[in-house]
Amino acid sequence: MKLRVGKTLLAAAVGLAMALPAVADTIKLGVAGPHSGDLASYGIPTKKAAEIVVAKINAAGGINGKQVELVVEDDVCKPEVATNTATKLVSAGVKVVLGHICSGATKAALPIYNNAGVVVMSPSATNPALTQSGEYPNFFRTIAADDAQARTEVDFALNVLGVKKIAVIHDKGDYGKGLAEFAQTFIKESGKGEVVLFEGVTPGAVDYSAIVQKIKRNRADAVIFGGYHPEASKIVTQMRKKRMKIPFISDDGVKDDTFIKVAGKYAEGVYATGPKDNSANPLSKEAIEAHKATYKEDHGAFYENAYSAALALTNAIKVAGSTDDFDALKKALQTSDVNTPVGKIHFDKIGDAVGVGFAMYQVQNGKYVEVK
Amino acid sequence: MEYFIELFLSGLTRGSIYALIALGYTMVYGIIGLINFAHGEIYMIGAFTAFIISTVLSIYGFPLLGIIVLAGLAAAVWASAYGYTIEKLAYRPLRHAPRLSPLISAIGMSIFLQNYVLLAQTSDFLPFPELIPEFDFMEPVAHIIGSSDLVIILTTAAAMVILTLVIKFTRIGKAMRATSQDRMMAMLTGINVDRVISTTFIIGSTLAAVGGLLIASHIGQINFFIGFIAGIKAFTAAVLGGIGSIPGAVLGGFVLGLTESFATGYVSSDYEDVFAFSLLVLILIFKPSGILGRAEIQKV
Amino acid sequence: MISMEELKRSFKASVWFMFLTFPILVIKVNPIEKTVIWRWENMAFVGIGVFMLSILIRAFYIHRERLRSLTISKKRFGYIGDEPLVQFILREPKYLYPLAAATLLFALLFPSLFDTYQTNVMTTALMYVVLGLGLNIVVGVAGLLDLGYVAFYAVGAYSYALLNLHFDLGFWAILPMGALLAAMFGIVLGFPVLRLRGDYLAIVTLGFGEIIRLVLENWSEFSQGPSGISNIPRPGFFGMEMDLNSAIVYMYYLVVGLVIITIFVVNRLQDSRLGRAWIALREDEIACQAMGIDKTKTKLTAFALGATWAGIVGVIFAAKTTFINPASFTFLESAIILSIVVLGGMGSILGVIIGALILILLPEYLRALSEYRMLAFGAILVLMMVFRPQGIIANVRRSYQFKKSAKEGDA
Predict the structure, then answer these.
(1) Which residues 226-255 of chain A have a CB within 8 Å of chain B?
(2) What domains does chain A contain, in order, with CATH numbers?
(3) Residue among B2, B4, B8, B10 with most chain A CBs within 10 A, to mutate
(4) Any idea which of A191-205, A289-303, C310-324 has the lowest mean pLDDT?
(5) Domain count along chain C
C-alpha cells in the first residue's frame, strides 16, 4: 500500500552491495521480534537498526570479506510463535540472532537457540532471570536488567526527592509488574519509605481516573510506575488534570520521546530512568541521523540498543573469524570492547553488557534531561 | 463521601463511552442478529480520522472551534462510510448464510481494519490534540471532575436523547423498529430493508465515532489498537443491558463503567475486569436476557 | 462481455473507495513537527486497484452464471451430480480408505521429507486440528457458541506447568490430569450458563475466558503472573534425553497420534446416542426436550468433552513451547479456533481439519508478506466467508431415504 522511497533505496543499496563482490558465501544475521500486531512498534526499530548497520558494513566490504545477509522473522511477541521463529532461523543456518524483543518470547526461544549453539542478543529484554538464572549461556543484551533500574528509581525517590509514601503502579505486564515488584521490595528493605498502594492497571482501558483518585486518597507523595509510555501518559495526564502535582517516576519504557510527544505539556517534570546519556556520543548521533536519512522519520523504542547490539555482534563475528565456533564468538563478546551508541561495551560472564547502566532523567521544556 | 462522588463521576465518564459504542452493537444486533466485532474498529477509525483532520487543520492555523466542528464532522462521515461499506461487503452477502458465518467475517474484518490503519499510518501512539479545552468555570471542581469528563457525559446524554427521538418519531426510526421486530413482515409492508440496515450501520458508526473523538481527546492519545478493548467492553455492556434494547445498552454501559470504577476504588484495579465480567455472568444467570432485554418466548 | 453499465458501476466503486480511504491512506501527519505528507499516489493505487478488482469479480460472476447454465451430467463412477464430491468420497470406502492411508503415510513421512522448521509448524497446525475438533463438539455438533474456549486450553497448559513445578510430575502423568481438570472446568462453566441461549452464552463464555486469563495474570503467587513459567520439560521417551531435533520430531509423532485418536473418538461420538442428542439439541431445543432427552446432562457433557480436548492440547502446548505466560491465552486465540470450526464447515470433521491447516499454516507461509501478513489473514477470512459461507466442507444433514424394495415394486 505504501512504499517508502527510502526503504526502496535501502533495499536497492543492500542488493547492489551484495551483487558487487559476487561471493555466494554470506554471514547470516537473524533478526527476530514483533513486526506486525499490536506490539510492532517495539520490534520495527530493531529491524531498521539492523538494516542500517548491515548496509553500512556491506558497503564497506563486509566482515572479513564476507557480506552480511539479514534473515528477518516476525514473532509477534508471542512465546508460541517465537519458538517457530527460532526453529526457522536455526533451520536457515543462522548462527547469530539479534532479538527477540519481548522477554516472554525471548525466554521461549532461547532453549532452541541454545541447543543449536546460536548466539542471541536482545536490545530490549530486561527480565533479570534471562542472565541471572544462568540457564541461557547463549544470551546477551545491550540493556540493563530490571532490578538495576528499580534500584535507581527507588534510590532517587527516597534519597534525592526525600519522599516517604510511595504508590507503586504497574501495567500488569511482564516488564512493568516485574519492575514494580522490585521497587516494592527495595522500598521495604530500605526502611526509609512506605508503599501506600501497589496496584496494576489494565493496559488499553479507556480511562484511568479511578486509579488516579485512589492514589490521591492514599496520600502518596510520589508515584513509581512500571510499564510503557501509553499507560504512563494517560495516568500522568489524568493526574495533572486532577491537579495532582506529586512526582511521577517511571522507567525505560517511558523514557521515550513518544511519551513527551503524546503527553505534551503534562509530561513536564516527569522522571524516568533510562540508559546513561549518549547524546554526546558521536556514534549515537550518527545512528540517529542514519535513521532520519533513510526512513525520513524519528527512530522508535530500543533503536540505539539495537544498533549497539548489531555493532557488538558483527564485531564479535569479525574477531572470532566466523560464526561457526560458538565458544569463540562468546569469548569475543566477553573480551573485545566495541564502541557503540550506548558507550564502549563488552559483556560479562552472564551476558549483561558492562558499561550500560541507568541514569535518572527529567522532562524539562519538552526534553529528557539527565538529573545530576 | 468526596471519594465516592469522584469514583461515581469517573464511572460515569467511562460508562458514557461504553454506552456510545454499545449502542452500535445493540442496534445492529437488534436488526440483523449479528455481533458486529468490527464495531470497535469503527470507533478507532472515527478517532483516527478526527486525529488526522484536526492535526492538519491546526497546522494550517484554523481556529479551535472550526477544528472541533470539522474534525467531528469528518469523523462521523468517514466512520459511517466505513460502517456502510463493511456491511455491504462483508455482511450483506452473508444474510442468508449459517448464523456464525457473518461473525467470522466480522472477526476477519476487525483484524483487517486494525492492520490497515497500522500499515497506512503507524504502529506508534500519537498525541491527540486537546479538542476539549479546560473551562475556567470548572476550575473550583477540577480536582474532582475535569472539563472533558463533563463534555463527555453531556454529549452522551444529548446523543441518547436525539437517538431516542429519531427511533420513536421519524419514518426511518419506525422502519428500523419494524425491521427489528420482523424483517419479513417489514418487507411485505414496503419497507426497504436493505436501506434500513444500512442506516442502522450509519447511525451506529456515527455514535462510535463521537465516542472515539471524545475519549481520544480526553486521554490525549491514539493508536490503531484502541478499538479492540473498547469494543469488547462495549459489547459486554450491550449484553449486560439486554442486547437489542437501546435503553438497555445505555444502562449496561453505565452499570459496567460504575462497577469498574468502584471495583478499582474500593477493591483493587488488578481485578477490575474480573469484577466486570463476574457481574455480567451473575446478572445473566438470574436474568438470562440482560437487565432490560425482552425474554425470548419460544412458540412451538 | 462486460457491458458499459457494469464498467460504470466499477468506476463508481473505485471512486467510493478513493473517498473512503482518503484520510487514512493519503494524509500522514506529524503532530510534533507540524508537517503533513500528502500521499496522492496511494489514492491512485486504490482507485486503479478497486476498479480492476471489481471488474474481475463481475467477470467471475458472469462466468459462473454461464457455467451453471451448462450443467453437465456427471454420472460417472457411481457419482451423482448434485452431491458434493467430498461427501461422496467420504461415504464410499472404496475411495476413502486408500485416500486416508495415503494421507497417513504422508503424515508419517513428513519429518523425513521436510526440515525441522516445517515439522514444528506442522505440529502447531495439528494441535489446532485437535483444538478445532474439540470446539467442534461444542459449537458444531451441540450448537453452543463458545467464545472462551481458550480458557480450557490455559487450564491444561497451566496444569502441566504448575504440577511439574511443584510436584515434579512428568508429562505422561499430567496428561490425563490436565484433561480431567479441563473437563471439570467445562462443567463448572456449563452449570451457570445452562439457561442461556445463543449470543448470551457467547458473551458469558467470553467473559469466563477473560476471567481465567486475568486471574493467571494477577495472582502471581499461584501462577507466577505475567512473567510466566519457563523451563517446562519436554515429554520424555522412556527416560531418554533428546536433542532439539529429535524432540521436535517426537513431539510431532505424539501430536499425529493424538489427532488420529481424536478423529476416531469424535467420529464415534457423533454417531453415538449422545452425539445424536447433541445434534437434536442444536436443531431444536424444545423438540429435543420433548423427545425425552435430558437437556442438562447433554449440554454439560458437550462442554466437558469439548474442554477435555483443549486440556490435552494445553498440556502438549506447554511441553512444546517449554514456556507459557497468560499472553498466549487471549480472546484472539479463541476467535481463531472458532474461525477454524466455522471456516472448515461446522460439524464436519474433515472440514475442521482442513480449516485448521489453512488458518494456522497460512500466517506461517504468509511470512513472506511480512508486515502485510495479518492484513492478508483478515481479508482472507472475510473473503472465504463471503464466497463460501457454509464453510469449506459443508456438513450434510443426516438423512435417510426410503427406498421401495424391488419385491414391493413387483407386487
Answers:
(1) 229-230, 233-234, 237-238, 241-244
(2) 5-143+280-354 (3.40.50.2300), 147-251 (3.40.50.2300)
(3) B10
(4) A289-303
(5) 2
For C62, other C-beta atoms within 10 Å of its C-beta total: 14
Closest residue of B to A234, CA-based? Answer: B219
User: Does B125 sit within 8 Å of A258, measured CB to CB?
Assistant: yes
Q: pTM for this structure?
A: 0.82
Condensed to tens digits (0 to 9), the pLDDT of residues A100-152 reads 998 888 988 998 898 888 999 999 888 888 888 888 899 999 888 888 888 88
User: C342 and C273 in one domain?
Assistant: yes
| A242: chain B residues, CB-CB within 8 Å | 142-144, 146
Smallest Cβ distance to C321: which of A79, A90, A91?
A79
Q: What is residue B22's predicted lDDT score, i.e. its pLDDT?
A: 93
- pLDDT at position B188 is 92
Distance from CA of C33 to the nearest CA of A (A): 10
Distance CA C325, CA C272 (A): 38
Same-domain pairing of C226 and C326: yes
Residue A33 backbone zone (phi > 0: left; psi -120 to 50: alpha; other: beta)? left
**In degrees, to the nearest 5, what angle opens at C-alpha A237 toward C-alphas A232 and A238?**
105
Rounded to whole angstroms, the Cα distance separating C176 from B96 reads 42
Q: Is A265 on the interface with C (CB under 8 A)?
A: no
Q: How far is CA B169 from the centre of its chain?
A: 23
C314: cell is 494445553
CB contact (8 A) between residue B125 and residue A202: no
Which residues of chain B does C28 touch, with a Cβ-Cβ cutoff of 8 Å?
Answer: 121
pLDDT digits (tens, 9 = 90+) for B197-207: 999 999 999 99
Q: Write out chain B residues lying below 8 Å of C226, CB-based.
A: none
CA dist A242 and B107 (Å) reads: 38
CA C66 vs CA B23, C71, C84: distances in Å: 44, 9, 20
Mean pLDDT for B98-117 is 88
User: Are C184 and C280 contained in the same domain?
Assistant: yes
pLDDT score at C261: 94
In a domain, residue C107? The reply is no
Mean pLDDT, rounded, for B124-141:
83
Identify which of B3, B13, B115 has the shortest CB distance to residue A209: B13
Residue A243 to residue B142, Cβ atoms within 8 A: yes
Examine the domain organization and report whether C367 and C287 are in the same domain. yes
Interchain proximity A199–B124, CB inside 8 Å: no
Same domain, C246 and C307: yes
Are C297 and C182 in a shared domain?
yes
pLDDT tops 90 at residue C262: yes
Report yes or no on C136 lying in a domain.
yes
Residue type, position C227, single letter: S
CATH for B215: 1.10.3470
CATH number at residue C223: 1.10.3470
Report the pLDDT value the prediction gives residue C16, as an integer from 0 to 100. Answer: 93
State the ipTM, two decimals.
0.88
**Cβ atoms of residues C350 and C86 within 8 Å:** yes
Crossing angle for the helix pair B246-262 and B147-169, to the nearest 10 degrees: 160
Cβ–Cβ of B112/C375 closer than 8 Å?
Answer: yes
Range of the domain at C12: 4-69
pLDDT at B137 over 90: no
